[in-house]
Fold:
Amino acid sequence: MDNQALADLLFPGITEEIADYEAKYPPRDLPSGAVVTRIAPSPTGFVHLGNLYNAIGERLARQTGGVFYLRIEDTDQKREVEGAVEAVIDAMTFYGVKFDEGATADGETGAYGPYRQRQRKALYQCIAKSLVLRGLAYPCFCTEDDLKRMHEEQEAAKENYGYYGKYAVWRDRPLADIEAELKKGTEWVLRFRSEGDPANTVEVQDGIRGTLKVQENFTDFVLLKSDGIPTYHFAHVCDDHFMRTTHVIRDESWLATLPIHVQLFDTLGWARPLYCHTAQLMKMDGESKRKLSKRKDPELALSYYREAGVPQEATWIYLLTVLNSNFEEWHLANPDADTREFTFSLEKMSNSGSLFDLEKLDNIAKEYLSRQSADFVYAGLLEWADRYDTALAARMRAKADFYRAAINVGRGGEKPRKDYGCWSQAAKFLAFYDPETFTVTDPCPENADGDKRSAIIDGYLETLDFADSAEEWFAKVKVLTEALGYAVQPKKYKKNPELYCGSIVDVTNLLRVALTGRQNAPDIREISHVLGEAETRRRLEAYRNA
RNA sequence: GGCCCGUUGGUCAAGCGGCUAAGACGACGCCCUUUCACGGCGUAAUCAUGGGUUCGAUUCCCGUACGGGUCACCA
Structure:
């Protein structure tokens, strides 16, 4: 076979040499040990947990004085969605992830671009051509049907699937056959001529898993699709080489095609990056685990957490506890420290798939929010409401001080309340404060209903004085409780229920339901002070008459 | 089916040849308490399995089982 003739036939326009690109993209001048890594999403419009998961690469880069960049893997035109790049950047920005270089919404920055793969076509073709020149790549004119038949045949014969051996029908065709097909205009793909043997294994170092032993690739996989655009495999190798990536952090589902990638790096004579295959996030589906799925699991989408209003930092805290096994301990010891102060290490990453635990996320988020100031919570809630609950946003703006005061109830001090972990929960929880959204949802305590109800409320209103201190206020409640035949100490009532008509719990709960509409609410006196005297009296009277 | 990865309580997990096998979430119980929370204390609950190696295996090796992933001109 005349490789030169074939190369000229296949790539008539390509005149660059690999050396030209080596010169154009020189090794980066960085301190030793600097991590250069990226996230490389395909622009499908769906930004998911995995993208954020891999964005821990940013922390690694920062820690080492390296580079973190964004590359867009848009080699599949069919799946591309308008505005997808913006969506990725927007989501990453929301979570505080910043890129040193790479694609931006309206272009790009950095010296190693273009960072959109389809714009790198000439580079891929140059490398592909070099492989043809070396006799390591050849065109294949099989149709989709041909390949389908091949697969069926292999299935029936219980042989390995793939384009190899006798199934690699275009592997050793004479140049004349190729020319004839080309002349007819038949579509072709460029395949890699693999010399691999399934009996051999290759060792690959993995930053998370240690030494991996994988089967050598023996299939003639596709390098260039019929539109001249590379497959993921080929693009990944070319780009991560020329963009001088040191660490490839990606999902463990890529383990299956790792042999292809190392084979390419090795035959091109390029140093392999350090692969870091992360474990997948799983979910319980009936009795069995399975990986989180785009179609079935809304919680895979990053937008899910944004819509629910889970604070960004809380999301990171959860993700980091799943990602790095020593993070949780650190965070417990430094609850108020920025998570970026934590030194992230690949070795501490888990290598088995973990179940995604929404309950724990909720706990972490509640803990996180309980430690924040009222101003912070007000601002966060407002920002969320502006996007997802505009009616609430309007109310918050109209009554900013009132909302701040409401948010401040039970906040601060040694034991802050943990009533909500995300903005949508907060919106629901705080609704009772505002007269515009106040409704009574919980029942009146049984022991305080009927005649008792009005007796308690009347008695309470009679002595109610907003100037009272907490102690004075509670003393009055106790007096009232006793006067109406209730036990001041719940324990006494429990012991001798026949002696009382109930306990102070019934009395206070009645007041609580009257003022907040529910039995689960913060301190009555504090709430009253937020509501103001007029509104407090109005609600009590309304409840008495209800 | 081939190949690959994985397996410590319900969940996330520490452990890296010798420990009463950490911790967190959840569950349960008790205490505190004007309710609910919060907080405090405590309880139950784990090394998949069979062989090796070793004085000694959760830890190292092999097999089995189970789980997951992957076998496209998708990434």
